[in-house]
Amino acid sequence: MRANIEATHGVIFAERAMIILGATLGRDLAHHLVEEAAQRSISEGRKLVEVRGEMLPGLDSPEAYLGVAEALRIRLVTETRSP
Questions:
Q1: Residues contacting residue 13 through CB under 8 Å, at least 6 positions apart
Q2: For 34-43, what is each residue's pLDDT tens digit?
């Protein structure tokens, strides 16, 4: 899985970047910035996070992209163990 993620140079995280940036910059500007970064990332063969520098630290961490998965897992385990 990690090899597949790395093959995209981090562009797979573009949606996440737009969501994060959109909250502060607005959807249109975030879309423009991330689209530009993704195009440069692909054409230059560089990671998306490198192209935009330290704009979004941790962007290429799949562990940070799990959302509420851990909370749901804990809830399910707790519910199935309860008598």
A1: 48, 49, 59, 60, 65
A2: 898 899 899 9
The predicted-structure confidence for 21-77, as pLDDT tens digits, reads as follows: 888 878 888 898 889 889 989 999 998 888 887 556 665 666 666 667 777 888 888
Residue 8 burial (C-beta neighbours within 10 Å; 0-12, 13-18, 19+)? middle
Instruction: Give the start-to-end residue ranges of the domains of the chain.
Output: 2-81
**pTM for the model:** 0.60
Q: Regarding the domain delimited by 2-81, which CATH topology (the fold level of the hierarchy) does it fall under?
A: Ribonucleotide Reductase Protein R1; domain 1 (1.10.40)
